[in-house]
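As noted in the main text, all predictions were made from sequence alone. Below is one such record, for RNA helicase.
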Amino acid sequence: MKNLEVPSFTVESRGTTFTYASPRSGAASMDFVADTIRAKDPSTSRIVLICQQNSEADHLKSELGIRNVNTIRLAADDPMVHQVLLLWSKGYIQQALILCDGMLNFLEGIEVNLGIHATLPPLKTFEERLEMLSKSETKAEMLVITGPNEENNSGGNINKPEPEIGDFPQNGVNQNPKMVGQPVKEMTAEKAQNIEDIYFKRGSPVKSSTDSQDCIKPVRVPELQKTEKGAIPKAIGSPTSPSITIENHKHAFEVFWKQFGLKQNSENSELSSVSFETIPTPLNLFELEDQEDTPSSDVEDILEEVLNRSLQGSTNSDSSTPILFGSVPTPQSSLEIEQLTEKLGQECTSQMPGDSSVEDPIDLYTSTSPESFQSFEEYDPGASPKDDPPPAAVFPHALETTRYHFGVLAWSRHVLIPCYSLSGVSNISTPIRRAMEQLGLGTERARGIQRFAWPHVSSGKSLMVVGNMQSGKTWCYLPTLCQRSHEILQRRPADGYAYGPASIFVCPNQLQGNQIERWVSQLLGSLEDDVYMERVVTLWEKGSVAYTACRLYQPVGILLTTVDLLLQLMTHHSKRNPIFDARAVKYIALDNLNDMVRLLPVTTTKLLKRLPELFDFGQGKCQLLVSGRTWHDDQVMDRVLSLMPDALVLFEDPLEASFYMGAKLEHKVLPETQKLGHLVGLIRGRNLAEERIAVVCPNQVEVLRLSHLLAEMDVKAQACFSEAGFSMVAKWRDESRALVLLVSDDVVPKLRCGRIDLLIHYSWASSWMRFKLRFALFYDNYKRFYSKVSGQSVVFVQETDVDNNWLLADFALKHLLPRPTVLLDILAHRRLADQPNSQMPKLCRQLIAYGDCLRYRCRYRHVMRREELLPPKHFPTKGMIQFTVVTCASPANLAVRLSDQFPTKSYFLGFAMTQLGEQVQRHYEVDAHRRQHPNPKPGDKAVVKNLKRYERVVIVDVEKNDKVVVRLLDSSLEILTYNASKVYICEEIFKLQTDEAMEIRILGMEPGNLERIWGEDERQVVRTQFFSRLQNRRGRHFTAYVQFAIHDTIFVDNVYDDEGNDLVRFITDRFIFYQENDCLSKFNKLTQATGPC
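Prediction:
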């Protein structure tokens, strides 16, 4: 096995041949292993590759696959492991096997011809390996890979794809991340102290300001000298060397370590002559924004600025003045940093302020409301001298060139130290990082919110993150949640926590939960189990609640479920049969809280009330992690923030951040000809030197045009539409020039214009995202916690901006702002005026229910035909009616049966049956009477089986996949889908009967959102409480007064039960809704606009 291309030597021990090979790099190691395997005859050689960890084994398999060497990766939890080994031992499977130390016992009694130790373990572990392998049928030949790039405390690690920040070299010289895969030059011990040529950048330990004298200082390492191939001491490499024992292996190891300038100490080796440190980079803004790389004209001045800011951070780290905002400067290349260091001829020193070196301001606040969160000032080079600069924070040096423009606004009670990527978070383990890299995450720069969230959450603190869809919110806390849950699960037998989950992850629905489950499984799959227990338990169905409760009697890792099912699961928890251990649960995540509040507002509020009753939130205890797209009303957020004593609040959405900070949001509906005059009216009469006004336009053309028009009206303005104007904006900011600032959307992401009192949106941006980004101009208002300026925003809108008007109105309704009646009227008018769907067969349901349509997009008809106006002949049109409720579709929408026309004759399976219902049920219970409908068509009446009852239906639609859509006629008005084979012919005697179910709707009552969708739990509250169907109340009668009837809907002003309670008051006391008082006039206009038949 001697290879002249790779330094190696061979020894024999107890009849086994050991070959020690030292390739010069990780890539060379992989090539050498691949060549060795290919050189063997697969039909006669049984080859085993042995690794220490699962992640190393996975990486080894991937690298060999790239080199066209097919292998089989064996895992301990693989149910087919014994069958694979049996086939492999008999020669039916001829690929090499890859396994870890824990799998060696499976090889007992199996013939192994070649064992390749892909990673060199500690000596004790190596001896255990040899003992296990000695139990195989034959004496296997051994190949041990070692080399100068080994990083673990035992020696070789050819599988580690990239050095991680914070991992210190122990058995070899680590490479710079940029050098991975390149040949490594060897270093002799006597030259290790020289300081020249090479500068290694690695993460240094966190140091407080009091330890500044002990900070690790960067050391330059000399160029490593190549060693001649095969330059091994002859006493070892000679083929005439006598057979040696295990003790001689220790001597062989020591020779190799000495060759690379390392000192062997017991089982651990340590490189004492080289230390590493991160290049300090100042952090100036919590609103992160990448800027284009610009060449340095004076490298000495740049580095001097870097060092000065680092020194300021060192001297101010003990200051009690909290700091929050700063901006990330343009990253410099590693070569530029080396050149800067050489020019100054000095060593860069820095420190990372830890919690111990900063006064914890948490005791200064007793409230958890948003007002009690600290705001941190920015160190702005252009700010006035009275503003004290903040402490500098160490930011991992970045070599990324891809550019993104985004802003992040953050609040915390603690000094925040953001990271650049996942490798800068020391608390996140290497297997988790590698698993995220396989998912395409963590290999490049982190997203803005993740830079702050990862270090904060990994240190055991709570998080609230608000951002747009697919902005990386869930990944802000998922890695730490999975890692800590696994660690807790492995310790729980020893800790005495004998039941329940370690973490709870709550999703809005199963669809989103399935994706979370896949991510969690991939992350947890990278971690090894010392004690096997269930890692993930999912609960998606109501029928599985009791079964899941039984599973939680044992310790589990992560419970993944929805809001309503978690509440049901909590009912199974008791002192006698506990399923939740408050001591064991360390994380509770509410993912996409906005969807939970929108779909299940009542249930979500109940859960927030229940959480502090079961779990203990606080430092070192349970932490709450919340993400969402919107900042909700105080009723929700006050409960959430009360459970977050150490919260970090992150905003990726500037509009949501401005709403949170109390900015005034206004809109003015103006025609194009009046916009300029209204703008001048807003500007004149103000002291522009004190009241800072910014006007935003969508592009450069409009900025220049507006600047010219304002100049004609004697209004001075400072225009900025490119980076060339930033210097003038800085003067406008610093000198408080009495000018109006005109900017375009293109420069907003990079613009630093200071405090803004009035932000005017002269025209809409090209997209909703760019419009929201304009509110980042308010960020400077929030940097100083003593500032009382929240800012005012005025949007000039036009009636033709239908889509943008809808989005603006939707934002106002979701945040419980004053109802934008003018915008909604514009939307409703445009929907009725523009009739692209006037020939569509289906009529818009919103039009029938509310007299107008406010959908963002609507595919239905908005013109009623004359025959559609009149209700069915048996519908009452005025006076009092008495009825029984058969279905509660929403709090304001019911399906009823009139008591005088359709009295209850009997009950079938607890459901009230009329005479017609009894006849249909008895007829179709006979098999001979059920005949499949041969040709279903819309409008035909048919019979289906619904909830074990045969009922009449009308066919609504026939789909291509042999599905028939029907609407119930007697027991409800629900729309259901059936297979065509389950739709039966309706007998003529039943076709002629009147439809029993009628739709009743409370006039003008609608939910507080533009979709006009009530929450499912709101419907359940009304159904189970107001329309209760208990055994002694199932025949209840309700009364109402008819206002009018149109199409197939009866409109009433209220509904009263037999005790005099009214439904409107019941809803008012519990839910948020809107009562439209002008609904009747809308229907009058609708009838006047009725089209021909």
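Residues 299-316 form the longest helix (18 residues). The domain at 665-798 is CATH 3.40.50.300 (Rossmann fold). These features were considered when defining construct boundaries for the mutagenesis experiments described in Section 2.9.
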